[in-house]
Amino acid sequence: QVQVVESGGGLVQPGGSLRLSCAASGNIFTIDHMAWFRQAPGKDREFVARFLWQPVSVDYGDSVKGRFTISRDDAKSTVYLQMNDLKPEDTAVYYCNIRGYITRFESVDSWGQGTQVTVSS
After folding, report:
1. How far apart are CA 67 and CA 82, in angstroms?
2. What is the C-alpha separation between 27 and 86, in angstroms, rounded?
3. Are 61 and 47 in contact (CB under 8 A)?
4. Does residue 54 register a pLDDT over 80?
């Protein structure tokens, strides 16, 4: 019922930048948060950043603080992840997660298919 699509991944050299986008569509009544996670081969999924709608706030994983910035376009139910000073250890598939409600009483927790970020020289 709720679709999540990530985009913006690609290949970048260490120290470079990328901006990821996460667009949610479908019958979304209320968004509680949209968040980014990542998963590298052989590792567990790791929290990266989240944007809370109410109250408005942002949180970051320790490994990306000071380098990544999450922002939103509320009208489009979209969040962005600006990634600066990228490091090889940032290489992973980045997934977007949305939590909220599609009706006043029906919650939703959806994930996108992921977008690959590769940081390598």
Report:
1. 8
2. 35
3. yes
4. yes
Cα–Cα distance for residue pair 34/32, rounded to 1 Å:
7
Residue matched to tokens 């979304």: 28
For range 58-67, the mean pLDDT: 97
| Cα 43 to Cα 17: distance, rounded to the nearest angstrom | 23
Determine the Cα–Cα distance for residues 43 and 29; give it in Å rounded to an integer.
34
**Integer Rg of the chain from CA:** 14
52 burial via Cβ count (<10 Å: 0-12, 13-18, 19+):
middle
Whether the predicted pLDDT of 77 surpasses 90? no
Burial class (CB in 10 A: 0-12, 13-18, 19+), 120: exposed
β-pairing verdict for 2-7 and 107-111: unpaired
Residue 76 has pLDDT above 90, yes or no: no
CB atoms inside a 10 Å sphere around CB 83 = 27
Do residues 115 and 18 touch, judged by C-beta distance below 8 A? no
Dmax (CA) of the chain: 49
